[in-house]
């Protein structure tokens, strides 16, 4: 089969998935979807016909398909220079706010959320922060709630990122935030910080939001890259509507906005501040 024919078959599969489950991946970018469906068929040894049948009849399998389609890669203080910018320029502006509302959209297993918590604590802003974190993956949300990661696999990288965010003379002790158990190979967020986050399973593709708040900060890093242009625009518009004027949206280092948003956000690296433009209706 030609590649374009294969893509067409996968598109048809996504329409069936949409029809018989709550999940709609039809506006994800072809590149990532094609590879992932091929992998599911290979891992479960299914023909397309069998894949469709299992999708229609086995709700548990559908959840495994969702896990296989979504990419959960993340780390503590991923791209430290961005967190450095947040520490120095973005978060201090919130010092005079009586409350700070934050939403991590596509939070994966929580490392991004705990990175922010560490910065808020460092800047004495944590007590007035309300933090929501959402992801389509139930498994990722459960992992994020536990806040326990493999020590041997992650610690060196996390510590190096952590040290890259602070001034050498003023770096806090990472052990204030994590307990380490080498025998059990665990690196665990301390309970007082775990308890600061409200985690909710939520699909960004769907219209409704699981909260009524407007936000000072919305993180959506390394999520939009998996969506096609139309879906990216729809979701960024929703973030715009849910940010206070002057509030900021933080995207991944390799993500950019299309021209439509030029006047709606002021860009500074991957941080986009919502401008104060109001649209009057006559
Ligand atoms: C590559 S991870 C990024 C994690 C984190 N934001 C970071 O940058 O380190 C992408 C996350 O987006 C989530 N995701 C994908 N599609 C989604 C959707 N429709 N709604 C909510 N989350 C979604 C995935 O489950 C995954 O956890």
Give the DSSP E fraction (strand runs of 2 or more residues): 15-25%
Low-confidence stretches: none
| Tally of strands | 10
- Going by CATH, the homologous superfamily of the largest domain would be Vaccinia Virus protein VP39
CATH C-level name of the largest domain: Alpha Beta
Distance between the termini: 55 Å
Find the structural class using helix and strand composition. Answer: alpha/beta
Distinct bound molecules: S-adenosylmethionine
The fold-level CATH name of the largest domain is Rossmann fold
Spatially, the strands of the biggest sheet line up as: 6-2-1-7-8-10-9
- Helical content stands at 40-55%
Largest sheet: 7 strands, mixed
Rg over C-alpha atoms, rounded to the nearest angstrom: 20 Å
Number of helices, counting only DSSP H or I runs of 4 residues or more? 10
Overall outline: globular
H/E topology pattern: HHHHHEHEHEHEEHEEHEEE
Overall average residue pLDDT:
94
Give the total of domains: 2
Write a short abstract of this structure:
The chain has helices at 3-20, 30-43, 48-57, 59-69, 80-90, 111-122, 138-146, 151-165, 191-194, 229-241, and strands at residues 100-105, 129-135, 148-150, 178-181, 186-189, 197-201, 215-220, 243-251, 265-268, 271-274. It has 282 residues and is an alpha/beta fold.
Structure description:
The protein is of the alpha/beta class. The protein has two domains: 3-69; 80-274, Rossmann fold (3-Layer(aba) Sandwich). Helices cover 41% and strands 18% of the residues. It has ten helices and ten strands. It has helices at residues 3-20, 30-43, 48-57, 59-69, 80-90, 111-122, 138-146, 151-165, 191-194, 229-241; strands at 100-105, 129-135, 148-150, 178-181, 186-189, 197-201, 215-220, 243-251, 265-268, 271-274. The strands form two sheets. A seven-stranded mixed β-sheet has the order 6-2-1-7-8-10-9. It has a three-stranded antiparallel β-sheet with strand order 3-5-4. Helix 1 (3-20) crosses helix 2, helix 1 runs parallel beside helix 3 and helix 3 crosses helix 4. It is globular. 30% of the residues are buried. The model has no long low-confidence stretch (mean pLDDT 94). The structure holds S-adenosylmethionine. Residues 70-74, 78, 106-108, 112, 135-137, 140, 203-205, 221-223, 226, 252 line the site of S-adenosylmethionine.
